[in-house]
């Protein structure tokens, strides 16, 4: 350290070193400029310049002509994509299996090596795999602790430290719920509107319900407590446990499995099903011919593979969070106009 340096300047330098070492920055990220350091710590421009020069000489920073200082360090390298999915994806009719199948086909099409890792909350991420998480978002904090990138598919990244290391692609669930309600308003004129919601603690379900209620604030909401057909089927009687006439109501179901449960219940009970709008555009919606809010699955998978190719190629730039829009897909819906 140069002779005669004040304690204040020495402390500032240590703060800068600590910031670099904390993992806040990734290798290749731009660091503070001379002017920014001078303004932030109330020191002269020349003192800030000397501090950056020392950090460069000591190996903490590099410098690019006309670009300023950047954080040095080696990028973590990956040998393949790791598809971290829950055991439920082994059930062929599950949402996880549907998405996993699409993703595997696309990875094979671009000749990108990959490995499926059946996952639970005790799973530890493998160092040589770039982790793509499908319904396993609870692994996110491991990315921060290991300083490695990962990808969250069809789920919003948790705020805070883990989001520094996780790329993601997901949909605007609130907008999708709003669109479902607006479709009902546009094409139907009925006595009542019902909502069959997913798990109460699932942010996707909550956002879809909130979007729908923004148009129909008096709609009755019943939670199935699940996303899955078998469990949802037991809750359908509660949905119809009112004086509402089924043929004079419409039901927004927060995913297609819930919608299929309503249709099967009505069929087994010998009653005509109400107007139904699902969410997701899973194969069951086409099989049973009901309308749904379609998730752009192919685009979602394409964005995921693009990121996998980039990260496996050594891209160390800041993470990206991509929000895609849904689109109503009308099937068998009687039109008012």
Describe the protein's architecture and organization.
It is a single chain. The protein is built from 12 helices and 14 strands. With 337 residues, the protein is an alpha/beta fold. The protein has 3 domains: 7-71, Arc Repressor Mutant, subunit A; 80-171 and 297-326, Response regulator (Rossmann fold); 173-294, 3-Layer(aba) Sandwich (Rossmann fold). The strands form 3 sheets. It has a 6-stranded parallel β-sheet with strand order 4-3-5-6-7-13, with helices on one face.
How would a crystallographer describe the biggest sheet?
Answer: 6 strands, parallel
- What is the C-alpha radius of gyration, as a whole number of Å? 26 Å
What is the mean pLDDT? 89
Instruction: Please name the CATH topology of the largest domain.
Output: Rossmann fold
Structural class: alpha/beta
Distance separating the two termini: 80 Å
Unreliable residue runs:
none
Keywords: DNA-binding, Repressor, Transcription, Transcription regulation
InterPro entries: Peripla_BP_I, SBP_2_dom, Tscrpt_reg_HTH_GntR, WH-like_DNA-bd_sf, WH_DNA-bd_sf
GO molecular function, one term: DNA-binding transcription factor activity
Protein name: Regulatory protein GntR HTH
Question: What is the topology?
Answer:
Blueprint: H1 7-21, H2 34-41, H3 45-57, E1 61-64, E2 68-71, E3 80-86, H4 95-109, E4 114-119, E5 129-134, H5 140-146, E6 150-153, E7 166-171, H6 173-187, E8 192-197, H7 203-213, E9 220-223, H8 229-233, H9 236-239, E10 249-253, H10 256-269, E11 275-280, H11 283-287, E12 291-294, H12 297-312, E13 321-324, E14 327-329
Parallel strand pairs: 3-4, 3-5, 5-6, 6-7, 7-13, 8-9, 8-10, 10-11, 11-12
Antiparallel strand pairs: 1-2, 12-14
Helix pairs in contact: 2-3, 4-12, 6-7
